[in-house]
């Protein structure tokens, strides 16, 4: 009877036993990290196979951190299309004569996730090129395509000036960021500090002392204090800065969206030789206003690359809300985006009762999904026409994005497209691995635990194991289990 049991085990598919047990290297790494298996969700499924290779804790409802961006970007690519773009328009209800616009100027946004200073400057330059120098009217900001929702930039981690905490806006420009640049001057033994863009609402108080010696923690030694509100900001530096540090820069999110956009408009318009006599106000663009100039965003296929390669939370939120625009008319809301994505998933036959969406970026304490269902999203995406765009947006192991420093010496280097996620108490990976036999495999690993920051070796072990696995290893595992039964 024992021999028959062993023989039957050997005849079973390799997935039959592996589904309920982690690969040994992964289990060892988790043990060293002091993370119990009850705190993880692991799902490994070869493309085309009926059953997963590994499914441990796969139905646990877990915080996926930034791997939630896979749901948002896949939905965006399918619902909007890879060639989708966002328009930012300048319109007017007045007339232009002898370089004077008599009437109001309307700046209407549609939620462009990546409207940089350079693109905004080109938009205003195009306005000047069309013969407008003086604006005798108001600058009207129209961001109504996104609903006004209460957003606290300090609510997530009490870091309101961190760029990743910038809230969404239909008129998001330059991520609402000001870059503080520090430049030491050996000749004068001083440290120059300036802001880019140089907005008058942003004040810099530079009390830095020039020092020699090693650089060390330049930001900590600078003792930067940031104070401000929606209308103004003040950077105060009271520490020291070493020559050995060279030039350094750090970006911060300051001012309100309206105040930032209007201040930047005024700054750039003045640099272009333009003037404006009216006020800045918020209002809808009247139906009779005509478009003067427009700038288009990069295509969505390019946008999702930035979102996933570099885990850009702000851009993910902009895309998420765009999915909530009701029939193209808006206003887009978090609730609308959530309903839209869940309806899309249901139409694809992806039932996810545990799914909780908050902002679509994963920068959330309440977003939830299971490893199995995140794996199902990736399996579905692989069969989708937008698969090439989604896969190309993922970081490549040991090559680029958030995976560029991982697995450099392993055989899997360059063989896996993996989205990473990291929050306090949560770590995650999800994506595609090309194994040594040329098979593409979906891999998801979610960890929710106080020691989640120690989980990277276990995750890397799973990626390496998935790449190197073969049928002989599987059968060896079955033999060992059969021998234990003897």
Describe the structure.
This protein is α/β, with parallel strands linked by helices. The protein has 2 domains: 24-82 and 302-468, DD-peptidase/beta-lactamase superfamily (Beta-lactamase, 3-Layer(aba) Sandwich), CATH 3.40.710.10; 87-297, D-tyrosyl-trna(Tyr) Deacylase, Chain: A (3-Layer(bba) Sandwich). Helix content is 30%, strand content 23%. It contains 14 helices and 22 strands. The chain has helices at residues 2-11, 15-18, 24-32, 69-80, 117-129, 218-222, 257-271, 300-309, 313-322, 334-347, 371-382, 387-392, 456-468, 471-485, and strands at residues 40-46, 54-56, 87-92, 95-97, 100-102, 105-108, 134-136, 139-142, 177-185, 190-196, 202-206, 209-211, 224-228, 233-237, 240-242, 248-253, 275-276, 280-282, 290-296, 416-423, 426-434, 440-448. The strands form 6 sheets. It has a 5-stranded antiparallel sheet with strand order 2-1-22-21-20, sandwiched between helices. The chain has a 5-stranded mixed sheet with strand order 18-8-6-3-19, covered by helices on one side. Strand 1 (40-46) and strand 2 form a beta hairpin. Helix 3 runs antiparallel to helix 13. Residues 3-18 and 475-486 have low confidence and may be disordered.
Q: What is the level 1 CATH name of the largest domain?
A: Alpha Beta
CATH fold category name of the largest domain? Beta-lactamase
- Beta percentage is 15-25%
Count of structural domains: 2
User: Which regions have little confidence, pLDDT < 50, spanning 5+ residues?
Assistant: 3-18, 475-486
Supply the helix-strand structural class: alpha/beta
Sheet with the most strands, sense and barrel status: 5 strands, antiparallel
End-to-end separation: 10 Å
Q: Report strand order across the widest sheet.
A: 2-1-22-21-20
Helix content: 25-40%
Q: Sum up the overall morphology in one term.
A: globular
């Amino acid at each position: 009877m024992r021999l028959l049991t062993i023989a039957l085990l050997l005849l079973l598919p390799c997935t039959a036993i592996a589904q309920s047990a982690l690969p040994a290297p992964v289990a060892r790494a988790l043990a060293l990290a002091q993370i119990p298996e009850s705190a993880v969700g692991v799902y490994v499924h070869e493309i085309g196979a009926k059953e997963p290779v590994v499914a441990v804790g796969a139905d646990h409802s877990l915080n996926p951190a930034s791997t939630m961006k896979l749901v948002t970007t896949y939905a965006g690519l399918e619902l909007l299309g890879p060639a989708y773009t966002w328009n930012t328009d300048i319109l007017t209800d007045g007339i232009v004569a002898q370089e004077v616009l008599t009437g109001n100027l309307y700046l209407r946004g549609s939620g462009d996730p990546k409207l940089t200073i350079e693109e905004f400057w080109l938009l205003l330059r195009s306005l000047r090129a069309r013969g407008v120098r003086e604006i005798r009217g108001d600058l009207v900001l129209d961001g109504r395509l996104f609903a006004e929702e209460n957003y606290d930039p300090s609510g997530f981690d009490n870091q309101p000036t961190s760029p990743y905490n910038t809230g969404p806006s239909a008129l998001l420009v330059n991520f609402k960021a000001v870059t503080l640049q520090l430049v030491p001057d050996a000749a004068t033994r001083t440290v120059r500090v300036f802001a880019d863009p140089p907005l008058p609402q942003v004040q810099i108080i530079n009390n830095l002392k020039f020092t020699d010696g090693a650089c060390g923690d330049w930001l900590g030694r600078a003792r930067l204090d940031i104070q401000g509100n929606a209308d103004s900001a003040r950077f105060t530096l009271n520490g020291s800065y070493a020559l050995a540090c060279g030039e350094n820069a750090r970006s911060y999110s300051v001012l309100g969206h309206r105040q930032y956009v209007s201040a930047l408009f005024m700054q750039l318009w003045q640099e272009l030789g333009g003037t404006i006599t009216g006020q800045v106000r918020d209002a809808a663009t009247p139906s009779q206003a005509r478009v003067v100039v427009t700038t288009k965003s990069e295509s969505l296929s390019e946008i999702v690359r930035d979102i996933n390669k570099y885990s850009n939370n702000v851009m993910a939120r902009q895309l998420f809300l765009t999915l909530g625009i009701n029939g193209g008319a808006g206003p887009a809301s978090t609730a609308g985006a959530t309903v839209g994505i869940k309806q899309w998933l249901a139409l694809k036959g992806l039932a996810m009762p545990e799914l909780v969406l908050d902002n679509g970026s994963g920068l959330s304490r309440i977003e939830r999904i299971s490893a199995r269902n995140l794996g199902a999203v990736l399996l579905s995406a692989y069969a989708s026409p937008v698969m090439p765009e989604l896969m190309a947006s993922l970081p490549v192991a040991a090559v680029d994005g958030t995976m560029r420093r991982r697995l450099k010496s392993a055989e899997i280097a360059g063989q896996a497209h993996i989205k990473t996620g990291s929050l306090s108490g949560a770590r995650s990976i999800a994506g595609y691995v090309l194994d040594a036999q040329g098979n593409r495999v979906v891999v998801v690993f979610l960890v929710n635990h106080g020691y989640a920051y120690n989980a990277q070796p276990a995750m890397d072990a799973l990626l390496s194991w998935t790449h190197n696995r073969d049928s002989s290893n599987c059968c060896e595992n079955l033999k060992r289990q059969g021998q234990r039964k003897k």
